[in-house]
Design a protein that fits this description.
The structure is a single chain. The chain has a seven-stranded mixed beta sheet. Strands 4-5 form a two-stranded antiparallel ribbon. It has helices at residues 14-19, 30-36, 45-76, 98-109, 130-136, 150-162, 226-241, 260-283; strands spanning 9-13, 86-92, 118-122, 167-173, 178-187, 192-196, 218-223, 292-296, 302-308. The chain contains eight helices and nine strands. The mean pLDDT is 95. With 310 residues, the chain is an alpha/beta fold.
Length: 310
């Protein structure tokens, strides 16, 4: 009988991972967690303590080690220290909770002494403007790899990793469902930059192209069963109908007066027609490229962790 191939990752249960937080102090209050938590996400102090606090400490260790190695390399080359920001990529499906996780890690990683300056950029800002998507016939494929300005995203992260003093990224508005003209996020050599988005672990489209993930020092994939994500997507759509969609300036204001049944049917149409195909064709196939996978259960809690061995 042949032996199974040895795994390149550690499989860590929720209980084993939670024990890592035994000597760590909870840095956030319930109000702060509520402010970070996205609509329809389930995140409480226990989840922060048992899952994301140890993850933040691990990321801080990785960043500090990379900085130390960079400084040692500079000394070896007899040059000034040119260590650049530690870049973390966070990928996963729509509605899986990756935006909440990115915001939470920005707060937690910044509480550790080795990494006090943490910035977050989402790849939504690198979506093509709606006018360009319409011109290319891609509005129904918004979120698919071809709907992004991939070159601009790659050049942004390349500039960060080159050590540029200041790098600018476009800003996306979920209210207008479009890029905000003239508005930018400015990144000024943080200790850690978090880049969050659907397709950040995508391989390059052509053999000689560069992928954005080539500039990541660490990457995370947020994983869950597609049926659970579908339910979370519908729950979020219903929550948005009762909140943001009621803003007359919202792109989705037309859905504000839908009944529960109508809203659920509309959400199912968006999920099955756009988001599920994108997940299966483009997002899920990148899971194996991540350094760490957070495995979510049906209630949004993390039930296990896969961590790539060094």
């Amino acid at each position: 009988m042949s032996r199974p191939a040895p795994s390149t990752s550690r499989e860590i249960t929720r209980a084993e991972w939670a024990r890592l937080a035994a000597d760590m102090e909870q840095p956030l209050t319930a109000d702060e967690v509520a402010h970070i938590r996205g609509l329809a996400d389930r995140l409480d102090l226990r989840e922060v303590r048992e899952v994301y606090l140890p993850l933040s400490r691990l990321l801080s260790h990785y960043a500090a080690s990379a900085k130390s190695l960079g400084a040692a390399t500079s000394r070896f080359l007899h040059e000034a220290d040119t260590t650049t920001p530690f870049v973390i990529g966070i990928a996963g499906s729509v509605a899986v909770g990756k935006s909440t996780i990115a915001r939470l890690l920005r707060e937690l990683v910044g509480r550790w002494p080795d990494t006090p300056r943490v910035q977050l950029v989402t790849t939504d800002g690198f979506l093509l403007p709606n006018a360009e998507l319409l011109r290319r016939g891609l509005m129904r494929r918004k979120g698919f790899p071809e709907s992004y300005d991939r070159r601009a995203l790659v050049e942004f992260v390349r500039a960060v990793k080159s050590g540029a003093d200041e790098v600018r990224a476009p800003v996306y508005s979920h209210r207008s469902y479009d890029i905000v003209p003239g508005e930018q996020v400015i990144v000024r050599r943080p200790d850690v930059l978090i880049v969050e988005g659907l397709n950040v672990l995508q391989p390059p489209p052509r053999p000689n192209d560069v992928s954005v993930s080539e500039f990541f020092d660490f990457s995370i994939y947020v994983d869950a069963d597609s049926d659970d994500i579908s339910r979370w997507y519908t729950e979020r759509f219903l929550a948005l109908r009762d909140a943001a969609f009621r803003d007359p300036a919202s792109y989705f204001n037309t859905y504000a007066d839908l009944t529960d049944a109508e809203a659920s049917e509309t959400a199912a149409g968006f999920w099955n027609g756009v988001n599920l195909p994108n997940l299966l064709e483009n997002v899920l196939p990148t899971r194996h490229r991540a350094d760490l996978v957070l495995q979510k259960a049906a209630d949004h809690t993390v039930e296990g962790v896969l961590l790539r061995k060094l």
